[in-house]
């Protein structure tokens, strides 16, 4: 039986990695490794909760509750998710990733309990939800302004190249703030309004193609 339980744990880790890959592709706070470990840990705790105390069943006057350990996973993962939620410039980041980690734990518990179809179906729903809703509904609820932080080399023409690319993408520049450090690098804080034809992923890919750009962060 232990080999079957180990298979459940491995399957939960694989499903968690699939969810984490979608998050990593969007450069979110938690990626493949985090979701992989959460899936494995949740499945392990579920297996332990269901089967780990079978040798104690013969003890007189001993009452066992197989749901106690599993119940703690639900609240315990909440602390992990809370660490991924941050507030930057009046904008909350990490809520979707935190919810994804919490759902990954639920998926791991389902597979750990032997509910392979339920756990696998949850993976499909999570990935589809994070992917399709980002593309379709995301634009309808798009904020009036996006805040982007860029670190770039301070070479000649760096700022001109950046502004020209924004103009080419028809991105409206609301505000800009620059700061040059001792390493001849420029930190640029931008407030942008994206057109319907350009989402975050397209803008990110276009900016990474610029020669002087070294790092981009959504704020």
From TrEMBL:
What are the boundaries of the signal sequence?
none
Where does it mainly reside? membrane
InterPro entries to which the protein is assigned, alphabetical: MgtC/SapB/SrpB/YhiD_fam, MgtC_SapB_SrpB_YhiD_N
Q: Where does it live in the cell?
A: Cell membrane
Q: Which UniProt keywords apply?
A: Cell membrane, Membrane, Transmembrane, Transmembrane helix
Pfam families in the cross-refs: MgtC
- Membrane topology designation: Multi-pass membrane protein
Q: Please, which domain of life does this record's source organism belong to?
A: Bacteria
Annotated coiled-coil segments of the chain: none
Residue span, MgtC/SapB/SrpB/YhiD N-terminal domain? 10-134
Spans traversing the lipid bilayer: 6-22, 34-53, 69-87, 99-128
Q: Which family does it belong to?
A: Belongs to the MgtC/SapB family.
Looking up PANTHER family in the UniProt record yields:
MAGNESIUM TRANSPORTER YHID-RELATED, PROTEIN MGTC
Protein name (record) = MgtC/SapB family protein
Q: Which organism is it from?
A: Cohnella hashimotonis
């Amino acid at each position: 039986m232990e080999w079957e339980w180990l298979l459940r744990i491995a399957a939960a880790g694989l499903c968690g990695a699939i969810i984490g890959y979608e998050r990593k592709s969007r450069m979110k706070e938690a990626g493949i490794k985090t979701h992989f470990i959460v899936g494995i840990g949740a499945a392990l705790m579920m297996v332990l909760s269901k089967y780990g105390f079978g040798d104690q069943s013969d003890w007189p006057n001993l009452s066992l509750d197989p749901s106690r350990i599993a119940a703690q996973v639900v609240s315990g993962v909440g602390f992990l998710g809370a660490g991924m939620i941050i507030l930057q410039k009046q904008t909350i980041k990490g809520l979707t990733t935190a919810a994804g980690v919490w759902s990954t734990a639920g998926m791991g518990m389902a597979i750990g309990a032997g509910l392979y179809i339920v756990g696998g179906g949850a993976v499909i729903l999570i990935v589809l939800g994070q992917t399709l809703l980002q593309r379709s509904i995301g634009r309808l609820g798009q904020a009036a302004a996006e805040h982007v932080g860029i670190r770039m080399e301070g070479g000649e023409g760096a700022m001109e190249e950046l502004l020209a690319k924004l103009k080419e993408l028809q991105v409206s520049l609301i505000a800009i703030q620059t700061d040059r450090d001792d390493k001849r690098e420029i930190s640029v804080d931008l407030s942008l309004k994206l057109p319907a034809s350009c989402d975050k992923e397209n803008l990110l890919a276009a900016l990474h193609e610029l020669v002087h750009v070294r790092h981009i962060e959504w704020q």
